[in-house]
Amino acid sequence: MNARFNKLLGRAEVSRRDVVVGSALVGGALLVGCSPADIMSAGSKVEVGAFGAFIKIAPDGLVTVISKHIEFGQGNHAGLAAIVAEELDADWTRVVVEQAPANAKLYANGGMGAQLTGGSSAISNSWTQLRTAGAATRAMFIQAAATKWSVPAGEITVKDSVLTHASGKTAGFGELLAEAAKITPPASPPLKDPKTFTLIGTDRVRRKDSQAKSDGTARFTQDVRLPDMLTAMVAHAPRFGGTVRSFDASEAKKVPGVVEVYEIPTGVAVVAQSTHAARMGREALKIEWNEDKAEKRGSAAIAASFRDIAAGKGPADLKWEAFESKGDAAAINAAKAGPKVLEATYEFPYLAHASMEPMNCVAAVDGNKVKLTFGSQGQTLDQLNVAKIVGTLPGSVEIETLFAGGSFGRRATFTSDYAAECVHIAKKVGKGRPVKLVWTREDDMHAGYFRPLVIHGVRVSLDKDGYPAAWRHRIVSQSIMKDSPMGGKGPDPSSTEGTAGSPYLKATPIVDAQLASPEVGVPVLWWRSVGATHTAFVMEHTIDQLARKAGKDPVDYRRALYAKAGADRHLAVLNLAVEKAGPTATAGWSRGVAVHESFGSVVAQVAEVKLVEGVPKVGRVVTAIDCGVAISPDQVAAQMEGGTCYGLSAALFGEITLTDGAVDQGNFDTYRVLRMNEAPTVETHILPSGNPPSGVGEPGTPVIAAAVANAILAATAKATSRLPFSGQTA
Amino acid sequence: MTATLDVNGKTMSVQADPATPLLWVLRDELGLTGTKFGCGVAQCGACTVHIDGQPVRSCVTPIEGLSGVKITTIEGLGGAHPLQQAWVKHDVPQCGYCQSGQIMSAAALIAQNKAPSDDDIDEAMSGNICRCGTYQRIRAAIKDAASGKVAVATAGSTTLEETAEEIAASAGATSRGAGR
């Protein structure tokens, strides 16, 4: 998600006992403003079995792997299960996945101290934890068999959930269950040499949920039906920061099926017997809004003010924060404009996540007890936020996490916005009666938490050989993390990551890179690949323009810079993608290349593009990724395919605009997204690696826009200074 | 009003405002939640069902006038339809939310066209949005299913036969619950 986030997710060393028997495990209270006691209490009661918090084995030998991470498309449930199955030597066809309850002590993400799925970290933060859990459980079974059979443990082998001794004795997990459960977990179970993996890295690691997601039985929040459940819709203020001044619910209450109307902090809620009734009731409301404190600027005005800031004409009290600097910055500005200097600005609009399942939640409040049933992405944050509303302890907030119909970052907010809204309503309803909050597509699109509007200004001078000598970089973006529980001092790394840490800056002797974070009353949030959504485009498109100035081939130009920077992984994926793409483009198509590192993985793409009526059409996209050990090569490919589509959708069409503070787009007719006829064909090649796994869900997203821009540059000599490619409105 | 609907071969009676979109009757009244709400304005295709074999966006189809037509939802495909097998074989779904609608659009296509070209697939499927970007696997799965090239490969999940039986059982229970 960003550098600071990744740091929070750093691989905390987990002791054997923590993993195996699930005793207290909190890497530290790293959420600012939450005391260790808050975090520690953020867990509903969980019964931990003999094999710890992550593994259950049934008498018939069925292995259940408990996932602390939500599955909303990333394929992490398959990957997490495969890690356990590999070390346990379980029969993969007899492994199922169950979603963990909310409990930060047992199910925190790495060193964060909070249960949260984000930063493309589900696999990486679980790698050692689940290998250890699987290996310890395997050792317990071996010891049980050794004792029962009176043979040395070292003579017993395990394969497909069956233990075997050379004497011919065999027993399945189910048969040895009672004995194994009594064994003390080993102090440090040996982990396999990755070279001996038989499941991880093979095409046998397939999704566990494809059947349920193809026959309509997979259960999403939208599908929850509980006895006596009510459905709620909320009328929200048309502008961010608006509140209810007064309302008249008399007509709404006449709508058949409407049960009650409540004012809540975010608007007016209509509670009804059905979704249709709630919707009709909401349409009948009459509300006067108080917009005294609302954000009333349009996106054009916001962009104009950001351009002024980037040009050094911003307000005096807005500070610039340096995030990379070396050498004599004055030398950059001294360089005269000319053939050896590139000056460029880039603009990026607000973007909605627009997951297929609009935001929703089911909540029941009974006194100080709360039960949430929904696709919770950040369970600990949700517990903390909800507990405050109800006046209870986080541990009294039980969460049943369901599949979610996409998130792309949207479901992990610091405010738990829609879950909190649902709890406000359920609290009014009371008596433990469940309430399902349904947002329409328009509610979802109007609610903000957008990818920030961002402007970059770049000035690079070249040395006599044509390589960057001095690089001045200015980023203007609303901050996602400032003033949040994850915020810290200094420039927000979620605004700079990708420019910060770039191998191109490492290869440049003089660097002056600064960030300004003006405040705007539009809620912003991480959006699949976060900072890289804009920094990857700026760095990679700038490099192609510099190569052009230098009269060099863009691939060779990158190779030289990677050599200077010691960026071996970048070089390796670039070479792999270029090799697999082959020497010549498909006839009639132009090629563009881009490479970017995010979430610990490096992705290179060669995209074939042609312009159709001025809009890029993307055909073949050859992708190479270094993500460490690939647990499921097929799911890595799926994420490269999907990530590329998600990035391309935004690059081609994605733009949220505001008129006088109100969001202009409401549905897919005005917020256009990629469709079947526009989808590229993505080929994925995984760099062989013995390194621990790194991110996969997000790194496939940010590269394509730059590859497309570079293909257009190659074909037309025109650089792209603004996304999306189509709809060049201000 | 009381509406009588033929859903997945079963006659079902519901009490609902005639203007209620079929989507909400299926989901809220009949408990057939496989059909999804995505946009409410026939832009995304997540709510696609068949009416007399034709793909229709149920979110904008009022129940008024649906007596006498045959409505088929994802549950009505039974779980082991060639497309559903192909979806599993290719691990098409990611978040999975749009896939019921994708499969229903694809089922209408291959019922008419056993060898759909890429253009045929684009035309039939471009009304269905997938934000996870599973389009190229959808394309591959449609071609497999249309040509009968589906091998059941369901590592680790229940067998297709079992799943189909479960669905049939639960659909039966649902229709009884709806007061048939």
What would you note in describing this structure?
The complex is a heterodimer of chains A (730) and B (180). Chain A folds into 3 domains: 3-196, 2-Layer Sandwich (Aldehyde Oxidoreductase, domain 4); 221-293 and 359-438, Aldehyde oxidase/xanthine dehydrogenase, molybdopterin binding domain (Aldehyde Oxidoreductase, domain 4); 300-350 and 449-716, Aldehyde Oxidoreductase, domain 4, CATH 3.30.365. In chain A, 30% of the residues lie in helices and 22% in strands. Chain A has 21 helices and 26 strands. In chain A, the strands form 7 sheets. Chain A has a 7-stranded mixed β-sheet, sandwiched between helices. Mean pLDDT of chain A is 93; it is low at 1-30. Chain B has 2 domains: 2-76, Ubiquitin-like (UB roll) (Roll), CATH 3.10.20.30; 82-161, [2Fe-2S]-binding domain (DNA polymerase, domain 1), CATH 1.10.150.120. Helices cover 38% and strands 13% of the residues of chain B. Chain B is built from 6 helices and 5 strands. In chain B, strand 1 (2-7) and strand 2 (10-15) form a beta hairpin. Chain B starts with a strand and ends with a helix. Chains A and B meet through helix 9 and helix 20 of A and helix 1, helix 2, helix 3, helix 4 and helix 5 of B.
